[in-house]
Amino acid sequence: MNMQIQTTVTAGGGVREYLTFTLGKEAYAMDILKVQEIRGYDVVTHIANAPDFMKGVINLRGVIVPIIDMRIKFNQDTIVYDEFTVVIIMKVLGRVIGMVVDSVSDVVTLSPDKIKPAPEFGSGINSEYITGIGTSGEQMLILVDIERLIGSDDMQLMAMADNRLDMAA
Amino acid sequence: MKTEVSDTRHQLSGDWTIAGVMNQIDSLSHYLQELASACKKRIHIDCERIEAIDMSGLQLLHVWMECVRMRGMEAQLLNLTDSMRQTIERLRLGHCFTDNSPPDVV
Amino acid sequence: MNVDLSQFYQVFFDESAENLAEMERIFLAIDPANPDDEELNAVFRAAHSIKGGAGTFGFPDITVVTHTLESLLDLVRHHEIALTREMVDVFLQAGDAITMQLTGHRDGSSVDQQLIERVCEQLSAISGCSVASPVTKQVQSTSPAPPELNAEAASESTYRIVFTPPHDLYTRMVRMEPIFEELSAMGDFTLTAGIEPHHEFANYDPTRCLAIWEMTLTTDRTPDDIREVFMFVADEDEIRIEKSTAPAAIAPTQGETAPDGGAIQGRRLYDKNETAPGAYGRRPGEKAETSSIRVGVTKVDQLINQMGELVITQAMLAQAAKQLDPVQFENLHRGLSLLERTTRDLQESVMSIRMLPISFIFNRFPRLVRDLADKLGKQVELKLVGESTELDKGLVEKLADPLTHLVRNSLDHGIESPEARIATGKSPGGTITLKAVQQGGRVVVEVGDDGAGLNRDRILAKAAQNSLPVSDTMSDEEVWQLIFAPGFSTAEQVTDVSGRGVGMDVVLKNVHAMGGRVSIFSTHGLGSRVVISLPLTMAILDGLSVRVGNETFIVPLNSIIESLQPLSSDLNEVGRNNTTVHVRGEYIPLMRLGDIFSIPGAVQRPEEAVVMLIEAEGEQLALLVDELLGQHQVVIKSLETNYRKVDGTAGATILGDGRVALILDAVDMVRLWRSR
Question: Residue C177 forms beta bridges with which residues?
């Protein structure tokens, strides 16, 4: 890891730390302050009538936490659940939510001058949830506004959208 | 008039109200133990640095002084602040703190 | 003194709040023409208590107002001035003013000084003597009672007063100086103090009060008056008052019983002889107060959490022990079964700590209804039924807002004006009924009125206006449900009472957040009822665990009527989703959980599976599950905290093996059936 940690603070914002993770071929970064812990993928209790990326809920030390699989949300082809599968437990919008990703990498520090605005591009994540592109060493990281993503309507994590059961399967 | 004495002087200080009395116990205990091994006839208790004192603090002081007396020593209060005097007066505890022996002159 | 007193204020604030509530309750119910003496004494006592506390803790602004109020109440209770309805109104406002002052000190909220002044003016107008309001004059925190208000002008006597304070006098932050000052203002006063001898410094607790005070007082006041000075500070048995002339030595014993009349250990001074009928301040026939202690809510919550964890752990043990041979491990099994029983008992006790009678919220409504009805020009009587019904403290707090909104609704839109009522042949005054009752494992709270009822056509019209799907063939029940849509209000005039802001949708949301549900019943011209059904406790549930496919669900025991394995002859299939089970002469519709929850591999044929009969909202359903697993007490874990309400469930739980299981909601099942 050969990144330089910038200590100069530019006006209007400072240096922030990000957790980097991969989904498919892309590398993403999210605000480290919203990460509570990182776990493996364990038994999940299925919730009927939830979107397919909503795998269900788990017991996290006595608290019920929903698990969403971002790989399904971003339409990845091959999705496996094995001992290498990683779940990022995040604290977002006052809730604890788990997010399945392909892998988790380092925590990087990015200063504002290392971040460029995001171009419109169609892979994976909707660009309205992207706050920029960061450069760490030679790596390009897609900076995700995780709160906006989790809170968006199509995630159906917040109440309101109808999740009524049906008589038939 | 301020009285100065030397090695028979024990300095009290800090918060002697209900909020602080628990914190005073250790040093008072410690000094009592020291006294047990020393051979003093009288000790002087300097109250100048007591920041605040209430009924509980006065009770503590009285009980402690009684313990000193039980060990065969005399205890005398010195340099009481005005507010401490007033508190003792208002609570009518003066008679608990009088010492029959004449004050030392240094 | 350099001490942060704020931690001790809370008790004063809490107790004063209780006193103010009691005062309000009595004023609202009192008949000015024929006031009850005990009640007059009780309000006097309450005001006096607040005044004393305000003095001890240094809130001179409160002292002034309560002092004025107390003096007036003293006159009233001695029948020196007659009570009128106007005076009661002023007293109620005085109570409001004091509440505002208290809240100002407690929360830092703003205090309307003009209102305080107005109240003081009104109070002084009644008594005819002028009173300085706290704004215009500096007042000492302990002003002695003005002697001209003391009607009894007895001749002077000398009393010997011995005060042996309780051991926690210091830790209760009691200041003796103001008490001595007050006594010295009552006459000729001498004071001597002593400290109990204590010679063992090693085990000396400096927070424990060892002081004793002996006083003589030559005064024209009565011993009762003297006792009242110590009211906030001492219990009955800690004050000894004797008529005497000779001073005596201080006797350093704690807890002596008073020689003058029937002292009861640990009772407040004014409860001198509480078993006597008409006893000072006590209603005849009322049983003695059971003793209680104040415990912080955080501590109770902590206790409940730990209790929940204990239940889970006990379940884990039970699970693990299942595989062990019952004969070889007989002792273990016996121990575990004992553990289960003890855990259950402990859990019930712990849960009951958090239970409060619903009167806590019901009590605000007499005042609210009175004021609001006056404002709206309507005549309304409020009936409270089942006030002693208990429910979890957390629910009691959350219920307050929705209930308030519903009551305001009834007042505003339900009950008609007296003229309108007479025109339709009703009595001019309407009635609002607040009812609470425990039913099965739930608490049912109801707000009903005998007003105009809901207007079906107007609701349909408004709904259509708001582009909600409506049809004329909708049942009344479905039409009433429309008013839960956000922003819905058919009030023609949005009054500031209930038509704005808080809608029925917020009521619904709040009730759902408590795990409850709302139903509306209404008949045009006769009235409406809104029924809220809440779970009895928020935390623990008796349930039956069942398996469907490879998933486990918990079915609340109090929803289950029975379980059975049907014979083919009991089943009547008219199409896949229309199977009924014949049980004791009735045909109960069958619902396949495997289908509803999209679970692969669930057993398909009912005769190879298990059918559970459940009941909710007056309907019976048969649920098809693969297998019954066992009965458990489960800790209810919220799904909404981090996720959302899942249809068909009432929360989740953690099984003995650490997995999450959903708790089935019988009412959701019934509603699902109805909506098919």
Answer: none
Q: What ipTM did this prediction achieve? A: 0.84
Domains and CATH numbers, chain B: 9-96 (3.30.750.24)
Are C479 and C456 in contact by the 8 Å Cβ rule? The answer is: yes
Domain C6-146, second-level architecture: Up-down Bundle (1.20)
Instruction: Please tell me the predicted confidence (pLDDT) of residue A123.
Output: 57
Q: Structurally, what CATH architecture does the domain formed by A16-155 represent?
A: Beta Barrel (2.40)
How far apart are the CA of C255 and the nearest CA of chain B, in angstroms? 19
| pLDDT at residue number A59 | 86
* The pLDDT value given to residue A98: 95
Q: What SS3 class is residue C157? A: strand
Return the pLDDT at A160: 52
Residue C194, pLDDT > 60, answer yes
Under the banding of pLDDT at 50, 70 and 90, the label for residue C2 is very low
- Closest-CA distance, B104 to chain C, in angstroms, reads 26
Write down the pLDDT at residue C245. Answer: 54
B vs A contact (3+ beta-carbon pairs below 8 A)? no
- Chain B hits for C176, CB-CB cut-off 8 Å, are 55, 91
Tell me the CATH number for domain C358-535: 3.30.565.10
Report in angstroms the alpha-carbon separations of C193 from B45, B65, B88, C209: 22, 17, 10, 12
Return the partners of chain B (3 or more C-beta pairs < 8 Å): C
The torsion angles phi and psi of C174, rounded to 5 degrees, stand at: -80, 130
C92 φ, ψ to 5°? -60, -40
pLDDT at C288: 39
Where are the domains positioned within chain C?
Answer: 6-146, 152-243, 298-354, 358-535, 540-674
Is the pTM of the predicted complex or chain greater than 0.80?
no
**Contact yes or no for A164 and C672 at CB 8 A:** yes
**Inter-chain CB proximity C1 and B17 less than 8 Å:** yes
Residues in chain A with CB shorter than 8 Å from the CB of C312 are 62
What class is the C298-354 domain? mainly alpha
Query: Is C513 in CB contact (< 8 Å) with chain A?
Result: no
Best residue of C204, C210, C212 to probe chain B, by most B CBs closer than 10 Å: C204
Q: Quick one: which of A120, A110, A43, A168 has its CA closest to C552?
A: A43
Look at phi and psi of residue C371 and say left if phi exceeds 0, alpha if psi is from -120 to 50, else beta: alpha
pLDDT at position C42 over 60:
yes
pLDDT at C497 over 50: no
Q: Which residues of C touch B62 (CB under 8 A)?
A: 195
Say yes or no: C597 contacts chain A, CB-CB below 8 A: yes
Contacts 24+ apart (CB under 8 A), C500-505: C502/C401, C502/C405, C504/C405, C504/C409
Q: Where are the domains of chain A?
A: 16-155
C-chain residue closest to B84, CA distance:
C1
Q: Looking at residues C243-261, what average pLDDT do you find?
A: 41
The reply to whether residue C639 touches residue A169, judged by beta carbons under 8 angstroms, is: no
Distance CA C58, CA C65 (A): 14
Q: State residue C432's pLDDT score.
A: 94
Nearest CB partner across the interface for B52, out of C1, C173, C210 = C1
Looking at residue C511, its pLDDT comes to 81
Task: Select the more confidently predicted residue: A23 or C284.
Answer: A23
Q: Does domain C152-243 have CATH number 3.30.70?
A: yes
